[in-house]
Amino acid sequence: MRLVGVCSAAAALAVGVADTAFACNIRDFSAVATCDDSGHGLIRVTDKDGSGTPASISLYIKMTVPGEDDRLLDTKTIEHPTAQGVTVDFAEDWAPDSTYRIHVKAGNLVDEDIKPLLTTPSQACSASETSPSPSDTPSAQPPKETPAQQPSPSQSTTPAAGSGTSSNPSPQGAGDSNLAETGADSHTPLFVGIAAALVAVGGGVVFALRRPRTSRSS
User: Fold this and answer.
1) CA-CA distance, 181 to 173, in Å (whole number)?
2) What are the residues facing 177 on neighbouring strands?
3) Within 13 Å of residue 29, how many CA atoms lie on the same side as its CB?
């Protein structure tokens, strides 16, 4: 009988230890600050409670002002935790080197914070950084030509009518140029007139000189 009692006590102790080993406790929970695929920050809490006890997870941010209470950000519930682990994500664009407190409430078994407190990495997620204003955002369209590259109406490659920079001289300009080269300029009529006057004067002198001789011979 004494041997049976010892065996029963040993079995009860083993069952109690096993129940304690599988019972939910704060060591089943962990938290990490990370980034999602789009570059936004999130805080992920994992529950590896093999007993399957539902747990309520509350996320707080530690305030830097002494005496000010931590600010509650959000609360989520893990309904069916497993020993392999079930996660819940809090969308939080955390700042570098910030401190968060995660409180766990699981039935009557757990009602405490995950230790140690969560401190975020020293580098923020890419989407958490300061975003450029719309005016500073590069356009996806090809860049347009600058005014220096695009000819203005006054700089058109087609010469304007009557422009002095035309490479094709007008017919009148060509005639003037040929006259200047051959010496037939606008003074030619004057020279012709002078020559005619000299001829007329010479003829008159000859006539005047011959007239007296005619008179004497008669």
Assistant:
1) 13
2) none
3) 32
Write down the pTM of the prediction.
0.51
Residue 18's pLDDT is 43
Spatial separation of the C-alpha atoms in residues 52 and 29, rounded to whole Å: 13
CB-CB contact of 158 with 168 (8 Å): no
CA distance 58 to 43: 11
Give the Cα separation of 37 and 40 in Å (integer). Answer: 7
Q: List all residues 6 or more positions away from 88 whose beta carbon is below 8 Å from its beta carbon.
A: 44, 45, 47, 57, 76, 77, 78
The sheet with strand 29-35 has its strands ordered as 29-35, 41-47, 86-91
Structure tokens at 12: 């009860």
Encode pLDDT of 42-88 as tens digits: 999 999 999 999 999 999 999 988 889 999 999 999 999 999 999 99
Nearest Cα to 35, choosing from 136, 165, 124? Answer: 124
Instruction: Tell me the CATH class for 21-126.
Output: mainly beta
